[in-house]
Design a protein that fits this description.
This protein has about 250 residues and is mostly beta strands. The chain is built from 1 helix and 15 strands.
Length: about 250
Amino acid sequence: MAFLSSLLLLIGLPACLPQVASPAAVPTLTPVPATHTATPTTVWFPATATYTPYPTLVMTPTIDVQPQFGELIFSDNFTQPTPWTLGQTASTSIALGKEELTLALNQPDGYLYSLRQGTDLGDFYLEITASPSLCKGQDEYGILLRVSPAMEFYRFSLTCDGQVRLDKFYQGKASSPRAPDYSGAVPPGAPSSSRLGIWASGKEMRFYVNGEYQFTVRDPSLPSGGLGTFIRSNAENAVTVSFSDLEVYQPAR
C-alpha cells in the first residue's frame, strides 16, 4: 500500500512542479564590415597641363661703340714749337714744357686757346692727354675740332667737377649739341689726368674719356677743319692745364 502511494506521488509530481520556459532562440549575429570614411590620397606629383616652355629671351647684340681706327696720320709730342700758337701776357701763358703744351690763365671768366697750324682734318680718330694742375668746380679744358678759318668749331670739354659736354660755335651763334653731364670716367679736381678720344666720320662724331664711350653727336655743319686746345675759367678761378701725347689716326668704318 505504501509502495502504491509512493508511485502515485511520483506520477503526480511533474504536474505540481513549476513550468520552466524553454530558452528563446538566440539569433545568429553576422558581422557587418565597419564603414570607413575615405581619406584623400596624397598626390605628390600631380598631373599638370601640357608643358609650356618659358619664352626664349632673344639677345640683341651689343652695339660696339669702341673706336675703330687704322693707320697713324701723325703724332705730336709737343717738342717742336712751330705747329702751335704760343704766347704770354700779364694774365695768360701758352708755352711748351717737357713734351707737353701748357695753357695757363689768371683772369675772371678767362678763355684761352692754342691752334695747331697747317692741320685740316675731316675724318679721323684722335687721342690726347689732358692734365689739369690747377682748376676747380666748373672750370673747363679740352679740344677744339673742325675749326674753320672763320673760327667756327666744335668744343669737347671736361669740367673740373667731372662733367663732359660738347659746344658748337657756328655762324655767329653758340649752342650745345651735348649738354653738360657728369661722367664717372672724368676724375674730378686737380692734379689729375684724362685721355680724351674723338672719332669723326662725316657728320657723326663719337667721344671718349679714358677709354670709356661718352656720347655720339650727328651734325653736318662743319665737315672738316683745324685742331686746337683750350681752357676756360669759371668766375675768378686760375686754371692751368697741360696737353701731351697727341695721336691722330685714319678712322675705320
